[in-house]
Amino acid sequence: MKWSEEAQQALEKVPGFVRKMARRAVEQEVRKKGADTVELDDVMAAQAKYLGYIGKDTDPAKTRVAVVRCETVSEVCPGVACLKSFNRRENHFKDYSGEIELVGFFTCGGCPGRRIYRLIDSLMRYGVDVVHLSSCMLMEEDYPRCPHAKQIKKMLENKGLRVIEGTHH
Fold it and tell me: Which domains does the chain have, with CATH numbers?
């Protein structure tokens, strides 16, 4: 299938690890409409169709929350207690007023929190306001306390985010 120069430039902006998949999706949409050349409008239409639901929500009354949790603990914990506390507005989620939305629930990526910086940059494009350090990163009884929690918190705060220590304990 042929690609216009503008369409090809737009495709180059897609991260390399998903570019081949994006190309196939765009070409599939172009074939459906009976065309044989991909134009910039086709790329934009496919982006809206497949990724439109993750666009930045600009409602200023809504607080967007993310939870970061321990990579090691995630191997034995599906996150049910964190999510229940969020959904019920209990424990460390009880002080929110107005509408809140969970926009991210992810692990740190392993010591020393190697994935957080990259994922927070991504979440900031979608308007994350507050990040909770999950209880598993902070407890000292059931799991070992995260030795990097202070540095992770400081890094998040340096990004301009409010950080709350804890979720369900």
Answer: 2-52 (1.10.8.550), 63-165 (3.40.50)
